[in-house]
Specification:
Blueprint: H1 9-28, H2 43-56, H3 61-74
Length: 94
């Protein structure tokens, strides 16, 4: 059987202070600032890939970014897939 140890008073106070601090930041509406720049890790590769997709499909970079955001929000949907419940795997093998 696992053994459980009780929290000390100091640990309980520290946990309560951390929770209170978190609630105060949420209540104030201040969100922590995200520092994302072109020099951030992976950004150069991301920009290269987005540019490659835009030039391949002859669209703008903004359209590619909006498409990625739409896919992220709604999930990837297969185009021209039949909406038939009895044959849900009719796209397999094509």
């Amino acid at each position: 059987m696992p053994t459980y140890t009780r929290k000390t008073i100091d640990q309980k106070i520290a946990d309560a202070e951390a929770k209170l601090k978190k609630l105060k930041t949420l209540k104030s509406g201040k969100t922590p600032a995200v520092a994302l720049t072109a020099q951030s890790e992976g950004m150069a590769q991301l920009l290269t890939e987005i540019t490659a997709v835009a030039t391949t499909h002859k669209t703008t970079i903004a359209e590619v970014i909006m498409a990625v955001a739409r896919i992220k929000k709604t999930g990837l949907k297969i185009e021209n897939a039949k909406q038939n419940r009895s044959k849900s795997f009719d796209m397999i093998g094509q």
